[in-house]
Amino acid sequence: xxxxxxxxxxxxxxxxxxxxxxxxxxxxxxxxxxxxxxxxxxxxxxxxxxxxxxxxxxxxxxxxxxxxxxxxxxxxxxxxxxxxxxxxxxxxxxxxxxxxxxxxxxxxxxxxxxxxxxxxxxxxxxxxxxxxxxxxxxxxxxxxxxxxxxxxxxxxxxxxxxxxxxxxxxxxxxxxxxxxxxxxxxxxxxxxxxxxxxxxxxxxxxxxxxxxxxxxxxxxxxxxxxxxxxxxxxxxxxxxxxxxxxxxxxxxxxxxxxxxxxxxxxxxxxxxxxxxxxxxxxxxxxxxxxxxxxxxxxxxxxxxxxxxxxxxxxxxxxxxxxxxxxxxxxxxxxxxxxxxxxxxxxxxxxxxxx
Length: 354
Ligand code: AMP
Fold this sequence. Notes:
Blueprint: E1 8-12, H1 16-27, E2 31-35, E3 49-51, H2 58-67, E4 70-73, H3 80-88, H4 97-103, H5 106-115, E5 123-126, H6 129-139, E6 143-147, E7 157-160, H7 166-172, E8 178-182, E9 188-196, E10 202-204, E11 209-213, E12 216-222, H8 228-244, E13 249-257, E14 263-269, H9 279-282, H10 287-296, E15 309-315, H11 323-327, E16 331-334, E17 345-352
Helix pairs in contact: 1-10, 2-3
This protein binds adenosine monophosphate (AMP).
């Protein structure tokens, strides 16, 4: 079923991803209703309506569901119970609770990826400090301890260089259920952003080369300097994942490219993704528009890359630069956040490079 022009798309979450989704929805003649706690949120500034309520406010969620023709999300930590409340009213949520619950738990995520035939770095579930000692003994000293849930942008992670750090790493994560991953000596980080529609048709974007600083995506360069065969392999694996999840919308799979050209999955995001922020400028159809098209049941647009491009995130004080200086560097997108804080994503700049 495809939505009629003028229908209302609900967005769970109020950040910059929701903002860019709302603008893409408006471009196609849809209305948007944002559900998120807070005031003057980036997405709410550009939407038709905003419901300022908590994700466990069942009555507010039911009212939201009743006012929307379809609901999507821009934040992967939306509680699964909120999605279930909306679905119980009879309003479809795309992507649904299944994909969301897999993505919210790093252990479930690894199990799912491996079941799809997608390799990951070696890992062990860790629930106690003695599990951590055992996992380090098995996997070797070079490792990363990550919380199973609620980690993002490098938060909830501790790098380990040996068993001597184990107790302090465990204490740093405050005893939360965790996963220990072997530290893999990758050549490069890439991602595949794709869109999948309700009848299972998929378009994949060209993989960018992603670089991070302090766990936060800093820069994408497109196309990534990898052989065509590796890029195609990455796109094939991401498509396999989306098919296995019976996914609807945009999904991003982050991967490590190993020195021999093999690929290891790091994690996936059940939403539009920062590493796809160059797609509106540099592709025939951008990730935000394709996400809206997918959740509306409209035909997907081509993902063809029109020219080589780079994307730079404006993080914290980067955004204190003058508008003139930013505009001289490329196509500027700002997220409407009034207060600059360290580590806060304020905007991004896309620049044609080829
Ligand atoms: P994550 O929050 O899992 O995306 O991790 C943030 C960043 O830490 C990644 O983008 C990598 O740069 C690095 N990282 C995470 N896991 C590993 C790993 N198993 N081996 C090497 N580097 C990693």
